[in-house]
Write a structure and sequence with these properties.
Blueprint: H1 2-15, H2 41-45, H3 49-74, H4 92-97, H5 100-121, H6 128-141, H7 150-165
Helix pairs in contact: 1-5, 3-5, 3-6, 6-7
Length: about 170
């Protein structure tokens, strides 16, 4: 229940000021592209099925671990180190004039909101097989994106599927 309440609150915050774009999932999709890290989509598709399953499960586990840390910080009885509050919408002019530190704080805030919403929209009981099927379907249907990092592509697949699951 707490997971749904927290996710709903973050979803409302994330959506505030957006006018509820027609493709809501695009708000959750990462903007980053590139081949960095260990595997890109082409490389991971060339691996045996069991390896791919382990990789995709590990990516989801990492997302869940990040959300667990978020929950621990949110439940803390004292302010966590580095706590800050970003409560207003930032327009393009403000963004262009913002310091690197402010941009980094805003980016971290938005990243957390995106991850929380995706985490909440993944239904309880989703299996590793379902995540693997989702990832592999995404990679098959988006061959022009497979040069990108494989974990990033799984994130895009989860964002696209999140609203279909609910």
């Amino acid at each position: 229940m707490r997971r749904v309440v927290v996710g709903t609150v973050f979803f409302v915050v994330l959506m505030s000021g957006t006018g509820l774009a027609s493709d809501t999932a695009s708000l959750l999709r990462p903007q980053l592209s590139g081949d960095f890290g260990f595997w890109n989509g082409n490389e991971i598709m060339g691996q045996p099925a069991l390896y791919r399953a382990g990789y995709f499960a590990g990516v989801v586990d990492a997302l869940m671990a990040a959300m667990g840390e978020y929950a621990a910080l949110a439940d803390s009885t004292s302010a966590p180190a580095g706590a800050s509050l970003l409560s207003h919408r930032i327009d393009d002019e403000t963004w262009r004039n913002a310091s690197v530190e402010i941009r980094q704080l805003v980016a971290a805030d938005l990243l957390l909101k995106r991850l929380v919403v995706i985490n909440v929209l993944i239904p309880e009981g989703v299996t590793t097989d379902q995540v693997v099927d989702l990832a592999e379907q995404y990679l098959r249907e988006h061959p022009t994106e497979r040069h990108n990092n494989a974990a990033l592509l799984l994130w895009r697949a989860l964002a696209d599927a999140a609203f279909k699951w609910r």
